[in-house]
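Memo to structure team: turn this sequence into structure tokens by end of day. - J.P.
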Amino acid sequence: MAQQTLAYRRLFSLPGTRAFTAGNLVARLPMGMFSVSAVVMIAGSRGSYALAGSVTATGLVATGVAGPWIARLVDRYGQARVAVPATLTAVLGSLALLLCVHEGAPDWTLFAAYAATAATPNVGGLSRARWAHLLRDDPAALHTAHSFEQAADELCFMLGPVLASFLTGTFFPEAGTLTGACLLLAGVLLFTAQRATEPPVQARSKGPSPLRSPGIPPLLACFVATGAVFGSMEVVTIAYADALGHRAAAGVVLALQAAGSCAAGLLYGAMKPAGLRLAQCLRAMAALMCLPWLAAAAAGSLTVLAGALLLAGMATAPTMVTAMTLVQRRTPADRLNEGMSLVVTGLLTGIACGSAVGGWAAEHLSPAGAFAVPAAAAGLAVLIDSVPVPGGRNRPIADSR
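Reply from structure team:
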């Protein structure tokens, strides 16, 4: 434990890292708030969960499309020059959605307003780019930084929905969206104000885009499959809890999966990554994702399922950290933010597909049998990774250059 604490203490002893991390965390917390807040706000006002789901799905698709273009602008002009106006656009979109709902505007205005939130910059990617710049000569410390960032992702997506539910239920339906917009703007302003740690803009190379870099397309396919694990697990867990008459507890059960991933990410960050391969992480994830399926089928208990999800979540962070490290090392330095944003696009695509397939399985199979979907998605990631490709994608991350 002392050694693990020392690794993170050294990480944040670097000048400026605490300041940009504080802004980064504030800006990322709303990412777990916006969808829940929008669904509660729209469904409460219009009486239609179908409309609320369609609006949030539109925002998800728009984010996946716009993300790489915004990241490309960041690579070309710098973080502060692009992230601040992009965030202002996204905040105005959130406020427009709030006003349209409050004033009873036509349904199409909700789609237009929420689509504007796709301008939200990938703050997690911006933070990872700063670590890559600061620790470019220290692979072990960079591994710790990537692990911390993954743990921060899990923490924000664990706390965000809880905070959104509390705000919308305690105060007024628009409170979650309003608070999220304020946190996003304040966090990005604090983050981009730390100019000393901002990576310098590099001259544009004539190399291929990250999407055509050797080894990147199969990695992105792995991220799509991993996103399908996340999306399907959320839907089938809610359906399973609902079948047991405990739908309100589904959020707590899912939070345990994120908690397991967060804890594993922090522990993984203090380990030396030498000799570890992505294939090993994916196989561990595929094996552990079978636990919820077995627990749901054999026990029929939400408590047992919660324990299985806690264990299953522990394979997520190491897998994501290892894959993100490989993406970073396969991406041209002048297009790092674009490469990181493509990862987000892959994950969002997988989440959307996983949610759809998981929902179908929960309705047409059985709530317990539907847990086969995330297990199958994890297995698909293993199969994708097993296909040999040029570029040495399956080498240990410590040996990847």
